[in-house]
Amino acid sequence: MELQQLRYVLAVAETRNFTRAAERCHIVQSAMSHQIKTLEHELGVSLFARTSRRVELTAAGTAFLPSAQESLDAAERAAADAAAAAGRICGTVTVGVIPTVTALNVPAVLGRFRRAHPEVRVRLLGGGSDEFITAIRSGSMDVAVLGLPTGEPPQGVASRELLREDLVAVVGTTHRLAGRDSIALADLDGESFVDFPVDSPGRAQSDVAFRAAGLGRDVAFESVDTAFMLEIVRQGLAVALLSRDAVPVDADVVVLEMSDGPSRVQYLAWSDFNPGPAATALLEMMCETAAR
């Protein structure tokens, strides 16, 4: 069994397509198929069920993936540690970023990091704060930017507060409240909303604020994409509660301050259990940038 074979298996598992997996690994498809068949023969099991149009993991393949990933991660960590001992930083660092991050200019930080450490590969993932916290705890993610309700700091990970902010109401240009400068939660009673999925941290701060005010709320649309949310607002279908900095100046919507609206805290989170050289270097750069 070779590490390259494990990489091929993981690529096919992620893409569910041999052609795309081969392109990702910079190898011809026939060679990748041959390597995976060789591995399957060695293991005595089929890792994939495949036809000319469909590829799926078998039960054996599903069981194989976690240890295969751990083996690759361990090999990469060994190489990174050896390089660090020689004064170089390499390897892979996995970063999670919520869709409404405003506390850090993440692309700018990654640009500086890349120039300083060109041998490091950065795996940037989008998603929600809960899944990022779980990933950091499990060791599958190195650093993440989170957004959580005020008074609910991340648990089980190291963290640093980056920014506290009040959310704003975003309405369409023809909305009945569009001419106001500031509103209260009660002014939104009876409105339809577009928000993040139920039980997600991105949604929680708004749900908490409405419950505290004794108000109900109809979330008619759910999305993890703020651009989609703003389009729903622009069409006059719903109201959104977002960070002011998440609303582009040319969004063709109206932003309203709220006297008693939701608030949230953005955090930088990481695992302080034996972080690798690349993760440590990126974390230091993020903290340095946040302190400016």
Overall radius of gyration: 23 Å
The CATH class of the largest domain is: Alpha Beta
* Beta content: 15-25%
Q: Could you list the spans in which at least 5 consecutive residues all have pLDDT below 50?
A: none
What is the N-to-C order of secondary-structure elements (H for helix, E for strand)? HHHEEHEHEHEEEEEHEHEEEH
CATH fold category name of the largest domain: D-Maltodextrin-Binding Protein, domain 2
Query: Between the first and last Cα atoms, what is the distance in angstroms?
Result: 49 Å
Number of helices: 9
Give me the CATH superfamily of the largest domain. Periplasmic binding protein-like II
The dominant shape is: globular
Lateral strand order in the biggest sheet? 4-3-5-13-6
Question: Can you tell me the number of structural domains?
Answer: 3
Protein structure class = alpha/beta
What does the largest sheet look like?
5 strands, mixed
Brief overview, please?
With 292 residues, this protein is α/β, with parallel strands linked by helices. The chain has helices at residues 3-15, 18-25, 29-43, 59-85, 106-116, 129-138, 201-212, 226-234, 277-290; strands at residues 48-50, 55-57, 91-97, 120-126, 143-149, 158-166, 168-171, 182-183, 192-195, 218-222, 240-242, 254-258, 263-270.
